């Protein structure tokens, strides 16, 4: 091995080790004012940033098998009169309370097995609602959401768990309410997929008070691993990948659900279009095989539908039972790049083009542009454009000019999902702030970055926490100021 190759291997190993630290559990719950601030918090930035993710990747020292199975921990950063307050709290789900009391893993999951081999797992299909994927305040309720079950309602001031919410009986016992809602023109649109061998997709529309407006259900053919959705004025859009689930090894306790996924690149990916009006008609179009977990935005123009998605050629499947982040080889992982799709509603033809040829995740737009043609997209990206790796930068894409602005925190830090907060009373699409929770391996602490959404070179402030927060999933912003006034 040459000296250059050896040095490169060492740098890659150090990078993965730093990234893996961000998956170490944070078992403590805090509540304090953030006093260590670089820069100045904009005084007009008033409201609460909520963020969800797996706060613990273990149960009493027993490692779980996938971050999807970690217990949900909500972080709230409240902005009030130029100051910021932090608090975090675990969602007290039934599974969380039982496992904490037992001191061991009691549930299988997407990538987790119970200890004891196949005999301990055979015919055990009782998953834990981890309440760990997203968090949103809507209709005077704060929900911690997980795509396989009911949302958990929380008290927004204290983050205390109220319990699973059926939405006043709208959700039956077996009806999931997913973790990727879309808000368009004051309407909250979400979905749920129930069943395994025979699946059905249900779409819900709620008004600003959380009251149901519409609901439609549709049978699905084949196995649908639907994690995200898109909406426009007239359509709900879903992407169904060519998956099959070989369920027998899972039922017999030999493998996890993740290990039973079979992605077939020889089969087409399906674009499911469901009308939001009238009879809620469903139409399925086929296109070349791809895997796309998270979508950006969708819009209609001149008889065509357009949407963006982070796409790769195949699904990254983990085969080992025990999770070891330091052993992950990013070079063997598919690179997720941002593609834009054009769906011709007359000819039924689907074409796509790559708009960001760099590893990326968590694409988002200004909330008022959801479902509409937009100019700017924000996302987390790899620091390098020519190799895959962990997310270490935030990118702003100007679709009109093709310009890309990049704010990087490499070599030892890792930003989370960028959340766009509009400046009050602004009408410009990129006039606002980007908020991203960054894990810094060099200090083993996290900080919240406030970026100028018009110019990512302008870091307005960094709010340094007293500890680290593990890599998370999704968050949201509300202009409501929520804080437990009984503390601090």
From TrEMBL:
Keywords assigned by UniProt, alphabetized: Dioxygenase, Iron, Metal-binding, Oxidoreductase
An example molecular function term from Gene Ontology annotations: metal ion binding
Cofactor note: Binds 1 Fe(2+) ion per subunit.
GO terms for biological process, alphabetical: carotene catabolic process
Superkingdom classification of source: Bacteria
Cofactor: Fe(2+)
Presence of the UniProt keyword Secreted in the record: no
Pfam families, sorted: RPE65
InterPro entries linked to this entry: Carotenoid_Oase (IPR004294)
Binding-site residues, Fe cation: 180, 227, 294, 474
Family statement: Belongs to the carotenoid oxygenase family.
Name recorded for this polypeptide: Lignostilbene-alpha,beta-dioxygenase, putative
The species this protein was found in: Acaryochloris marina (strain MBIC 11017)
């Amino acid at each position: 091995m040459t000296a250059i190759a050896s040095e490169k291997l060492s740098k890659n190993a150090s990078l993965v080790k730093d990234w893996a630290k961000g998956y170490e559990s944070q078992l403590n719950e805090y509540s304090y004012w953030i006093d260590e601030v670089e820069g100045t918090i904009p005084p007009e930035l008033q409201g609460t940033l909520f963020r969800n993710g797996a706060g613990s990747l273990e149960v009493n020292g027993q490692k779980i098998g996938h971050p999807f199975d970690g217990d949900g921990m909500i972080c709230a950063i409240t902005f009030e009169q130029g100051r910021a307050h932090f608090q975090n709290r675990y969602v007290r789900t039934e599974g969380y309370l039982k496992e904490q009391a037992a001191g061991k893993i009691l549930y299988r999951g997407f990538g987790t097995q119970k200890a004891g081999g196949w005999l301990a797992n055979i015919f055990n299909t009782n998953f834990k609602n981890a309440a760990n994927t997203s968090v949103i305040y809507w209709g005077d309720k704060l929900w911690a959401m997980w795509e396989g079950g009911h949302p958990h309602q929380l008290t927004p001031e204290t983050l205390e768990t109220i319990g699973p919410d059926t939405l006043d009986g709208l959700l039956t016992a077996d009806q999931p309410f997913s973790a990727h809602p879309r808000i368009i023109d004051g309407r909250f649109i979400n979905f749920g997929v129930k069943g395994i061998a025979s699946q059905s997709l249900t779409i819900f529309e709620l008004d600003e008070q959380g009251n149901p407006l519409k609901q439609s259900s549709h049978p699905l053919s084949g196995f649908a691993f639907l994690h995200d959705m898109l909406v426009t004025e007239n359509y709900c859009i879903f992407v169904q990948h060519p998956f099959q689930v070989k369920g027998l090894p899972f039922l017999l306790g030999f493998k996890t659900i993740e290990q039973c996924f079979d992605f077939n690149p020889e089969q087409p990916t399906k674009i499911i279009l469901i009308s939001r009006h009238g009879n809620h008609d469903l139409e399925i179009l086929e296109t070349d095989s791809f895997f796309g977990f998270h979508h950006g935005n969708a819009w209609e123009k001149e008889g065509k539908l357009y949407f963006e998605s982070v796409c790769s050629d195949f699904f990254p499947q983990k085969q080992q039972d025990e999770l070891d982040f330091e052993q992950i080889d990013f070079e063997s992982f598919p690179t997720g790049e941002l593609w834009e799709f054009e769906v011709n509603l007359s000819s039924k033809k689907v074409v796509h083009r790559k708009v960001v040829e760099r590893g990326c995740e968590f694409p988002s737009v200004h909330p008022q542009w959801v479902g509409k043609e937009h100019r700017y997209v924000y996302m987390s990206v790899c620091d390098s454009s020519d190799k895959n790796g962990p997310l270490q930068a935030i990118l702003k894409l100007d679709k009109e000019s093709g310009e890309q602005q990049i704010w990087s925190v490499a070599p030892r830090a890792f930003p989370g999902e960028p959340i766009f907060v509009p400046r009050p009373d602004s009408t410009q699409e990129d006039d606002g702030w980007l908020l991203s929770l960054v894990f810094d391996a060099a200090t083993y602490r996290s900080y919240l970055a406030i970026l100028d959404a018009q110019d990512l070179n302008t870091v307005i402030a960094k709010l340094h926490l007293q500890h680290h927060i593990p890599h998370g999933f999704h968050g949201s912003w509300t202009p409501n100021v929520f804080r437990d006034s009984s503390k601090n």
